[in-house]
Design goal:
31% of the residues lie in helices and 25% in strands. α1 packs antiparallel against α2 (37-50). By secondary structure, it is an alpha+beta fold. It has helices at 7-30, 37-50, 123-141, 149-162, 255-264; strands at residues 54-55, 73-77, 80-82, 96-105, 108-117, 166-167, 173-175, 182-186, 203-206, 209-211, 217-219, 226-228, 234-236, 239-244, 247-250. Bound molecules: magnesium ion (MG) (2 copies).
């Protein structure tokens, strides 16, 4: 069942989404070679709790006997696609890291992600990051009343594959609201005109996961981390988006992050 949201609910969701945006900006300021991912996680947890939010990933139930997720952030480095568990291993020059964060506030979830370069990164990785972000924005542009979920999926896949990148199939975007994963699923591949119709008040977390090489992935035996099957790097961007007046409105924001990135460059 797809739960459409009214304006009041969407405003609460914007608050949750922006709390994630500000958390990611806080992390953006710290990302450099030598930094410990687990320390970034502590920083994020403190910030969220100090601002009246609840870290939504911490304690998230794992499937098939996997432990509950132990952290506030998913930090997925290089070949890790998503669901990476923050560790004590320092970041290295040239790494790329996807930082995904979920927050619950006022009963509603925010869930979004950004991929950062650590120090100087190879041009091919810069390209991967740019194309993944462009794919997300092209997908979002299709989220208009009367279109279908497949229109979003198609736009994302088309752009990523045009650049020769692999589009992950096993993990998808999702509806967002009073639970973190609602219907409908939002695959990052698909056909125009397929899937549920997009309506006023729909709120989605759209999240392309794009690989430098093969589209195939596997899971590490920590029960969480998804890595590429060929060990090549992967990028991940996620925004929370609502349909308002028939058009997509991004509730989350990369402005805080990109302000920081411009300053630290
Ligand atoms: Mg996420
Ligand atoms: Mg998500």
């Amino acid at each position: 069942m797809i739960y459409l949201k009214n304006r009041e609910e969407i405003e609460l969701m914007r608050e949750s989404a922006l709390m994630v945006s500000r958390t990611l900006a806080l992390i953006a300021r710290e990302i450099k070679p030598g930094v410990i991912p687990l320390e970034l996680d502590k920083l994020a947890e403190t910030y969220i709790r100090d601002n009246g939010g609840i870290p939504a990933f911490k304690g998230f139930k794992g499937g098939r006997g996997a432990p509950d997720f132990p952290a506030t952030l998913c930090i997925s480095i290089n070949e890790a696609v998503v669901h990476g568990i923050p560790t004590k291993t320092p970041l290295k020059e040239g790494d790329i890291i996807s930082v995904d964060c979920g927050v619950k506030k006022n009963g509603f979830y925010g869930d979004h992600a950004y991929t950062f370069g650590v120090g100087e990164i190879k041009p091919e990785l810069q390209k991967l990051i740019e194309v993944t972000k462009e794919s997300l924005l092209l997908g979002i542009a299709q989220m208009v009343s009367g279109n279908r979920i497949g229109d979003i999926s198609f736009a994302i896949q088309q752009h990523a594959e045009k650049h020769g990148f692999g589009v992950v199939r096993e993990l998808v975007g999702h509806g967002l609201g009073r639970t973190m994963h609602e219907e409908p699923e939002v695959p990052n591949y698909g056909k125009r005109g397929d899937g549920p119709k997009i309506k006023e008040g729909l709120v989605l977390a759209i999240e392309p996961m794009i690989n430098l090489g093969t589209k195939n992935v596997k899971q590490l035996n920590d029960g969480w981390t998804i890595i590429t099957a060929d060990g090549k790097p992967s990028a991940h961007f996620e925004h929370d988006v609502a349909v308002i007046d028939g058009k997509p409105e991004i509730l989350s924001s990369y402005a805080f992050i990109e302000e920081v990135l411009a300053l630290v460059k």
